[in-house]
Specification:
By secondary structure, this protein is mainly α. It has one domain. It has five helices and no strands. This is MalT-like TPR region domain-containing protein.
């Protein structure tokens, strides 16, 4: 049975992660905010490594914009999503961002 390729939806999340990473590297917080807001509902339904990576980038965005409470929340979500996949640099980054947000909040 042949698969009709017009019904296969590409996973755009990889491209969203790539673009968000580039924007954050440039410290373009306005564009990062737009990307995070648009991609949030697309990522909310997923609980895989890509969703965890997105939450890490979202946490980094909030941290750089000075919203440490949202950064902490996003990094905790990232850690809970990434933990079942074993130890990884992404999981380490989630814990690191949690710690940085707590320090910035004075806790």
């Amino acid at each position: 049975m042949a698969i009709d390729k017009k019904y296969i939806q590409p996973d755009i999340r990889l491209e969203v992660l790539r673009q968000l990473g580039i924007v954050l590297d440039r410290s373009d917080l306005l564009t990062a905010r737009r990307l995070v807001e648009k991609a949030d509902e697309a990522m909310a339904d997923h609980h895989d490594e890509l969703a965890g990576q997105f939450r890490n980038l979202e946490s980094l965005f909030h941290y750089r914009s000075g919203d440490y409470q949202k950064s902490l929340a996003a990094s905790r979500i990232a850690a809970s999503v990434l933990a079942p996949y074993g130890e990884s640099s992404d999981l380490g980054q989630a814990y690191l961002l949690s710690g940085k947000a707590l320090v910035a909040m004075g806790n």
